[in-house]
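Curious: explain these tokens?
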Amino acid sequence: MRVMSNVKNEYVLEAYPVPFTDLGSRLFYCPTVAGHFRCDGSYYTIRDGMEGYLLLLTLQGRGVLSFRGGVHECPPGSVLLIPCMELHDYRTAPGETWEFLYMHVQGLNLETYVDCLLQRMGPVMPEAGAGIRVHMETILELARTLMPGYEEDLSLEVAHILRILVKRAAGWNEVGRDLAVRLAGLIQARYDRPLSLQEMADRFRVSRFHLIRAFRAATGFTPHEYLKKYRVRMACALLLSSDLPVARIAECCGFGAASSLSSAVRAETGRSPLAYRRKMLGVRDIAGAHDAPATPGAGRSLPPTGRNPGAYAQAPGITARVPGDAAPKAGRRPGART
């Protein structure tokens, strides 16, 4: 490891080494040092060959990072994240006073996170510090006090920071998230009736283009894809929790025709609705009732919502709503697997 630096005592507002047990260092993210600096224009650090990663949040003033042949400014609110094994040079920008929180951190899968963030955002992420400062200050407090359980708590704080940065790199924003959550709720309430993209857009007073873009960014699906998959989920729930015929289930779940339901269930599961019911409930197929293998890519499923009993539609005993009827009772059938 090579290090050149002119750190002066007056720069260091706080700095704490963090001891980790052998078990903790293998299980958790491990901040090895956490600190708070305020530096004048003469501060610099040049380093390579050091294990771990540097994460630095600029509070006031500006710094400059030289890394991988590029020069990057570190304005207030920016987050710097680099592997310390590679040659890097960071210093106070000319004419500035640079104040920052920092930590050196190690962990088993940090390399994957850092590589992803470097590819998408570069080594300095402007305005990425929103929401991160509270976690950096908590890390500093934990490093200062080393209260019982600090290894787990430190690891959790690092995980929160990584989550915020990865979501930002993926283009996630809270406004889009709120719209996606509300649209998912509308779909879950209206899946059994016709629901067009224009109706959805009108409901939330946005354009169809914006609705599709925001919902796909948050969920990975277009609104139409989500609606179709949710209808399949509810249909599968009714197949497993009721004796309703396929035509009635198609009507209840917004498919209209039994053929439309059959095509959708087969695309998602590789089986016809009745064959899916027999398979999941442990009823032996009749001779010749073999189904084609699942359509490639059909396994991409919706995340459980936690709001609707159909969220785990592939589990025997789950019930889904039958519009206009009393909810069917869930329970074991003869021969059902448990």
About this structure: DSSP finds eleven helices and eleven strands in the chain. The longest strand covers residues 30-39. The CA atoms of residues 224 and 242 lie 27 Å apart. The radius of gyration is 27 Å.
